[in-house]
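Entry for the shared binder. Reason: the reviewer on the internal report wants the predicted structure included alongside the sequence.
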Amino acid sequence: MTQSDDFGFGTQIRKSPYFDATVRWGAKAFSVYNHMYIPRDFGDPEQNFWNLVNDAILCDVAVERQVEITGPDAADFVQMLTPRNLSKMAVGQCKYILVTNAEGGILNDPILLRLAENHFWISLADSDVLLWAQGVAVHSGMDVAIREPDVSPLQLQGPKSGEVMKSLFGESITDLRYYWLRELDLDGIPLVVSRTGWSSELGYELYLRDGSRGGELWEKIMAAGEPFGLKPGHTSSIRRIEGGMLSYHADADISTNPFELGLDRLVDLEMDAAFIGKAALRRIKHEGVRRKQVGLVLDGPRLTGPNTTFWTIAKDRAVVGKVTSAVYSPRLEQNIALAMIAAEHAVIGNEFEVATSAGSVRGAIVERPFFDPKKTIAAA
């Protein structure tokens, strides 16, 4: 049997409260995200995809570290970090936001949770926003406290996740709306539960507030899920690319701005708040973007896994962009990809030559997301 000590790069990479449990349940390989191990392999990734879309999977996403912001000026401080207008965000609500720098570049695309009037969590993608927020606070003149709390989320995702949640928490959990949260406990285990997740499927995130009880929580959920076909799993590259969901450092980074991604809805240049990057984003919008994110379908042999390098996109032998994320979708029966391309070429139906790891193939721009574009599954 594989032991948890078989994995390791040293003490500088942290293990989640669920690490030993995921190894017991078959995790075969890990990568590093936010200086922490994340399971990436429970066997066949295509079977993991089918487990997700047909039944349910439980994923260790404790790597989604929380930046906790509290204090009398917490709401104003959080608004300063993001171009999304938070003026109508209620206590108990979650929002997908962007964190931008002074040049309008994206530092992170996290979920923001509002636990109380002056109590927020920023649930991070893979970058050091804790350090950014603490640095911004130093000369902000605002009364805030910023720290990383003992909070570690799990994702329970898939069409049967609701049944598993009812088994754990009772019928009342069905009242939890999409992108809202609730503070709960499970047999004394303190939790925040939200209707969110990185899958574009019906799903929940369970934020454990006591890291000493990680193994206990994992086993309780797996036991409750057994009648519904719940399997241990990992976040699915197939499903997130189908859903057009971003992976930070792949599809966006510090040199990417919201307008290139078509995320104009997350930028309010008319609000009074002087958020970081406002002047730069106003200038970018006025001048227009030079590149845009698009969806591609790729010819050629079936991809055997996601791309591990950026693939060059050419038109008439001139490089015009790059593929940022690519995978084979067994449901759509085609290779699909997210790409960043010169704005003048970002037209539905345009065709290109794409230099994949297996050779040059034809790529064509299509609408994205590739599946369930209105997010009706996740929001049901």
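Summary line for the report: Residues 4-65+150-240 form a domain with the Gyrase A; domain 2 fold (CATH 3.30.1360.120).
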